[in-house]
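[Automated response] Your request has been received and processed.

Submitted sequence:
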Amino acid sequence: GNLHIDVASSIILDSDAGNVYLRDSGTDVALLSMANTDLYIRSLVSDRDIIFQGYDGSSNITALTLDMSEAGAATFNSDVTVGGNLIVQGTTTTLNTANLQVEDKNITLNYGTGDTSGSANYAGITIQDAVNSSTNATINWHQAGTFFNFSHNINTDGYLQHVSYLYSRNDLRV
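Generated structure:
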């Protein structure tokens, strides 16, 4: 059967141990606990997700899924706004987006603390499958020669300038 609690004021669960367990058929499945004034929400079943749901208008939506079989990988259903700095500590950052808009006018590659010149060789930009499925286009820094390598031709409708000489597209031949 069901247990229905209906009170005119608050329902208070007070545990001197600071633990509130949720059970299903006698098996602990979730735990709300307090430790050092911090609130912990824990799934007690191995590899089971924690899912936050709600209503958007009249539609039931999943706002956030924490995938416990993937060390708590978070999947948000919609936008995520970061009020401060976004710090990524992994080795790969993947953006699956059609448009990337960067307000900063400078993108720094090979960033690090101290002298990073030892790892700057071949730092650059790669356009995957630029020509076909097996040919990328790249702009890479060649550290020993202190110049950029372009994997393909450069075309300009304007001018190229070298130190103090300005070349038009018609008078520059390499």
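Summary generated for your ticket: The first strand starts at residue 19 and ends at 24. The CA atoms of residues 154 and 160 lie 10 Å apart.
If you did not submit this request, please reply to this message.
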